[in-house]
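Model it.
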Amino acid sequence: MRCPAIVLPLLPLLIVPLAACPATAPARPAPPAASTPAPEAPAPMPPCLDLGDDPFAVAPMLERVTLDGDALRFCRREAAGDACYAANLESGALTTAPVPSDFGDAPDTSEPTPAPLRISADNRKAEVCDDHDRCRALKLPVRSAIITHASVSAGGRHAALTMAVGDAYLVQLYSLPTGKALKRITINADPYPCASADFLGDTLLVMQNICAGPAGNAWLADPTTAKRVAWVGGSPEFGAWSLWEEPVGDDLWAFREEAGREVVVQSVTDGRIVHRITLDDTLPRSDDGDVLADPSSGMMLRNKATGELVVVHDGPAQGTLVRIDPVAGRVVKIIAMPRCPR
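Modeled.
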């Protein structure tokens, strides 16, 4: 008997890959790019005085000028808008300052009436009053006179009323506290018809000018006799249109010539000139060598902290400050504030 044949099924061929493609390696992170520092903002330009493009034009004048410690503060009405600054009195460097909220208002030039005087609202009557508010009328020399200014001596012994009578001016002196009328100073129209009088200590300063512009002189007077003690500056030629006077001690006062070309230190009791300080070298000159000084601008202030005088040039010399020692009678330092390039 034959045995049946055994048939085995064919097994599928298993192909085992012996060598597979290598796996892709993970990408390495790129090294961080070198960081580029942000460019630094340029340092702000320090402020400077903009005098405009026209070298012959008048720059905005200095206003609200005051001394504050070691700084001179002032404002200007510039083309880009109102601006205020503080200038260092040692270096002249400028920093900006806030503009006062009332800078656009018209300046108040009125002065309070000095005690014990009282002036009526219409400026036609005057009284002298005691500490108990008891008053007596001062007799005016002319009924139609308009009181334009009042001043009282430092010792309280004399008063002076400046009055306009038509086109003429006069100064009436009074004894205090009685109110008795003393001498009268009549101002001659030639050469300067307008006048005003103030006490410097116990001496009267009488200032005369042409009313409408630069040109004037000033003199010192005895308040009892009304006699002239001396001309301010030693001569009627000493310009006093914009006279700036400052006390410097022991009956000595400093006076700035109207254009800032000179400062004198003078005794107001006997009129002697103690110092005469010429400032022409602190002012610019024309091509012909003429000193460029403006009698309608500039000023002189006293630094109470140091006792120095500070002459502030304006007009063609704007930006120049001159510190003066009034005791030694010399210029201490000339300071130039930075000017913007034209």
